[in-house]
Amino acid sequence: MRCVVAIASLWLAGCFYIDPINQRPSLDIRQDSVGDIFRGEEVSFTAVVLDPDDQTVELTWRVYMCTDATTFADCDAESTFVGDQRTFGFVVPMTRADGVTPVAGLRIVLDGKDDHGATSKPNDQLQLAVKDRNPDLDLRKASVYEQPGPQYVVGMPINLYAVYGDGDDSLDSLTVDWKVYPPMQVPIDLTDDVIDSPPGKRQLAKILKPQVTGEWTVEVTVADPGMNMAMKSLTFNVIADRAPCISVVAPIVPPGSTALPVMDPTLFQVPIVGDDLDSYPKTPGGSLFGEPTFQWSILGPTGGRQVISGATGSSTLFDPSTFAPGTIVELRVEIQDRKLTPVNCTDSDATCSVGANSCIQRQTWRVEAR
Question: Is-contact 298 290, C-beta < 8 A?
Answer without folding.
Answer: no
